[in-house]
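worker-3 :: picked Phosphatidate cytidylyltransferase
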Amino acid sequence: MNELTTRIVSAIAMIAVALGVTYVGGFLFAIFVAAVATAVYWEWSKITKNWGVHWMLLGFVYCLLPALALLYLRERGEGLELVLWVFIITWATDIGAYFAGRSIGGPKLAPKISPNKTIAGLIGGMVAAAVLGGLWAWASALPPMLYMLGAPMAAAAQGGDLFESWMKRRAGVKDSGTMLPGHGGVFDRLDGLLVVAALTALIYFGAGL
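worker-3 :: tokens ->
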């Protein structure tokens, strides 16, 4: 099995598991979120093991808040649709950025941090998230404010991606781990989702929804 096939099969499996436990919700979803957050923190700890205790504490908060955010969002009245919106925003950002970056190319977004990322990729991810996120929010009767949040959330997701890339570059590692065949570590796959989940919960809580 070549690397591309491995990545595709792994991605399908991960998406299927994520959608399944999200649909079930409740205790199973809580256990899944806790396990994933623990895996991310484990990888964070390995990356920052020589950076001082404050980085360990920062990592604990950085992993805990998105986990609590996902649990909070899933317990809303429209929790299933809302968590799926978070997933769609994150996945659309990654896919849009990948295809726009490869097909258009052009100036680099942050060459010293992540040489492969381009400004075209950033814009492509924002457009994809805006369209797909807006359509899902409308079709699922989610609050109208979510219709317009796709693009800024995509930018935030890519900010999370760049932050993790900066951490790996500082630590001198290519991937955060090896748990996911063809994808590296759990942190590698969820760097954007962590930010989107936390911001969505903050906005929801702030709006009193």
